[in-house]
Amino acid sequence: MTLSDNDIRTLLHRATDHLTGPPGLLDDIRQGGRRRVVRRRALLTAGLAVTAAASTGGLLRFVGTEGEQPLDPSSPLFAEPTRGDLAGDKDYLRQVRQQWFGLQDPLPDMRGTPHVLWAGSTPAGPAAFIAQRGGTGAAVGWIEPTPDGPRVSSVSPVNEPTRMQDIAQAILLGPERDVLLVLDFGWPVQLSTELRYAPDGKIVRQYQPFAFGDGAGWRHVDRQVRKITVALRRSDGQPGQVFISNASTVLNPEQKQVPVPERFEYTLPGAPLPLGRDETSSALKPYQDFDGTHTQNPRLPRLTIRGLTPDGRRLLVDTIQFDDDPTRVVAMLARGEAEYQAVASGFVDWKAILPVRLRLPDGQGTLVAAPRTTLQHRAGGGRWHDAGPNATLLPTTATEVRVTPNTGPAHTVPL
Fold this sequence. Notes:
Layout: H1 5-15, H2 25-31, H3 41-44, E1 51-53, E2 61-63, H4 76-79, H5 90-101, E3 111-120, E4 127-133, E5 138-146, E6 149-158, E7 170-173, E8 179-183, E9 189-192, E10 196-197, E11 203-204, E12 208-209, E13 216-220, E14 231-234, H6 247-251, E15 263-267, H7 281-284, E16 302-308, E17 314-320, E18 328-334, E19 341-347, E20 356-359, E21 366-378, E22 385-394, E23 400-405, E24 411-414
Parallel strand pairs: 15-16
Antiparallel strand pairs: 1-2, 3-4, 4-5, 5-6, 7-8, 8-13, 9-12, 9-14, 10-11, 16-17, 17-18, 18-19, 20-21, 21-22, 21-23, 23-24
Organism: Phytohabitans kaempferiae
Transmembrane segments: 42-64
Protein name: MucB/RseB N-terminal domain-containing protein
């Protein structure tokens, strides 16, 4: 199956935000964005290239496709004058360059004088974006304000042609990370300040235009410490998340290794083998936050179930979890080799004796799951029928489930 732009974006989004590596492709597609234990700051925009022409009304206009040569000497990374209200503040620009020079080899074969593309005032203090030439490209970095003066927040190489929307043009500033600063790269940007969930677990975001002036723009946002609720995206018809350069630091200030969440994978009797390709990207799109950046709570498990419905459709159940938010579960059905379609969804309560319970449409039964248990079911007070361990697809006639943990007493749960 040919990957769409959304599929590619999702994979790129996942590529840098799980410190221990994604457990599988379904995790990659599911989390979108990544997203996700944590993005690594240096990799968030690593491998990016810029071949550019001057922007009309913006700071930079980045273009570039595969096969183009490395950074052109006339790139506006160096040819354009410094923008921002501190462009003429020689003392501040000196401090910025001094901090940059204090780095240890941000790029091999660095040479020449670093160029400050933008320097300006924000409610969190003065900030800047800087670039310097290297052997075949350049290094760029954000300079953020601290109580001790300017400090280099992030450094990224710019030396290979790639998609322009992958350049990290935003940063969160201040002790509470409540000032969002975005460079003007010559395309319109939209901001969503809040992530919400519909009752069925689908993503709900509202976007509004982000205003620029003199090469950049800033907005007050809610506290963004250990959790990022804001999202930025291009709004010129070109798909792409606008990345936040210090997302890794915001989400994981100590940069600690984050454990991989426990996984439960169950195959019900009669389930067909996977087709060997991604089958869920379209079905899960409404549940993914393509433009957001998230962690995964390592204390909340991940669940995957494969089965077959009474009418012969393939069944796939998968979970999605962001930050400290509740886990969501999605049931998908497909006929033959067709792609899955989401047919039921909701939230998982991992503290409940029966964490997952989804009624499938068309009289195909009720999917239930409770890891490390044995399940039974009955209808209308009749006799109990064995349903196997951990997960099962119950008939539509079932009215009760008996859940017996591997250790502990049995519990009866009405459906």
